[in-house]
Amino acid sequence: MRRFLLTGLMASTLLINSTFAHATEPSPLIVATEQIALFENDSILPPIHPWSGASEALLLSAEQPWATPFEQQGYVSSPNYHDTMEWLDKLVDSSDVLQKISIGKSPQGRDIWMIIASQDGESTAQALSDNGKATVLVQAGIHSGEIDGKDAGMMLLRDISHSSKRELLENVNLLFIPIFSVDAHERSSQFNRVNQRGPVNMGWRTTANNLNLNRDYAKADALEMQHLIRAINIWQPDLYIDIHVTDGIDYQYDVTFGYNVAQGYSPSIFTWLESIYRPAVEHALTEQGHIPGQLVFANDNTDMTKGLSLWNPSPRFSNGYGDARHLPTILIENHSLKPYKQRVLGTYVMLEQTLKTVAKNSTKLKSAINEDKYRNPSKLTISWQSETLAEGRDFKGIDYHIEQSPISGGKVVRWTGEPRLYKNLPIVANTKADITVTRPVAYYIPPQWSDVIERLSLHGIRMTRLKKPRTITAQQYQFSDPLFSSADYEGHQTVTAATSIHRINTTLPAGTVRIQTDQPLGDLAMLLLEPQAEDSLFYWGMFNTIFTRTEYIENYAVEPLAAKMLLENPALQAEFDLALKDQAFANDSKARLRWFYQRSPYYDNEYMKYPVLRAAK
């Protein structure tokens, strides 16, 4: 068994065994740095070239008084929850620009801490709002094994407090959540992420309830996510960064990042991110010896010629949720095969440059946010199809070859570690509008759907309640052919269905919630309430009881009822005669009786009808 080994705090070399199991000669790609460290999974990972960059000057040696635990342990390890917060507590106590608050407790009772960094040491959301500066929220450890952001943020806060970087706070505020998924962070092991090169021990991907927090933004099931969304509503950040480590293919980039697309719900924000933010951050990373790139996924991990995927995320993901609620949101995906030290330093450089860029361009950023918040387009696309874009992209990849695996019997990729430029790869993107709906004036939700109402309120969507019954004309969706997921997904039985929409007159009871769509979170309300939207609360199964039949009619009762209906309604007789021309229907006695029941006054007139109404203009 391989063991993690440190010979002193500053040993001479880091040797990573990067040969393949099938290789007959030692790989020439030997990584040399300051440490000796053999990770449990080294021997099964692809080879890499040595890395050295200017950002290494950011590191402190272990004996320095404010060295972080990451630096104290040779740049290959990350501290547990207790040691992280103990170090941060000492830093906060020593600093006049830092404060610490809990945004809530996890299911296992751990606080989810947030550090507030501001020039004057403010400790409340109102104080940050009053200082007029833009606020950046940085979140690490949503997948707690992907913890690069925690150690980078600790270093940055240290340098702001005790070095020359206090000036970073002159025109911007920083909120930093070092560990979001705190319970999963403590389910730590050297065996948790086989595809990732450090740190030595890594947390678990999902929460103690086995929920993936980066699938939970729209439905907000997890207690941790509910705390975070409340914090976003209270602290109102102007930029939100969610830090991950990627899976998938090998490539040269060590820091990739992405956000919403131009076709999405926040086009002004996209323009700011694309024209101002990305150039500044990529320049800073490149200067410091890193290779930045766009957030990237391969269309086929075994065949790079099939090109790349440009992702238009739905609101279950952080960057899709940010798009829907018009909060500029950046998803960082550091490359899992790069050494941990390299990834942490790249994250530090990106966070530092983020503060500089936001401080310099905060007026334009806030203007873009307001433009998107108050666009209120008359039509909204709620689902998307894939299309091949007109322009391809050069891609800094890694060469590979394909072998037939004696283990699986299938094809397996062998990355060689050698850089390879793939010219003008095709780009496939889910950016073609699929289903588009008109914007209603408002939605009405009857009071008995309290779970749905509470979830919408959690997101910060404004609503009012009817104090007395009201008769309205509205649009209502009718469903048919529901298709339920055959397996549980994130604790839900998801559902899709064919829809038709009908105009109705109805009287709403007192307590019914009315949600206007001409509000800053109006687009988010539509994406949660339109049943065909990709992450609607309908899709997540929060209305599944409408598909349950609870009243029936016996055959001995429907037979004479049908005869009476035909006798009294010649038009119904003609309709029945036409239906009998369908041989399958004619041969199905139960279907024939059901046909009459559905047309009788005894039938459940709410069956498979969406209880959320659209206010008709």
UniProtKB/TrEMBL annotation:
Cofactor(s) the record lists: Zn(2+)
Gene3D superfamilies: Zn peptidases (3.40.630.10)
Single biological process term from Gene Ontology: proteolysis
SUPFAM superfamilies: Zn-dependent exopeptidases
Alphabetically ordered keywords of this record: Carboxypeptidase, Hydrolase, Protease, Signal
InterPro entries: Peptidase_M14
Chain ranges of the Peptidase M14 domain: 77-358
Keyword set includes Hydrolase: yes
A GO molecular function held by the record: zinc ion binding
Superkingdom assignment: Bacteria
CDD domains to which the protein is assigned, alphabetical: M14-like (cd06241)
Record keyword Cell membrane present: no
Family, similarity comment: Belongs to the peptidase M14 family.
Name of the protein described by the UniProt record: Carboxypeptidase
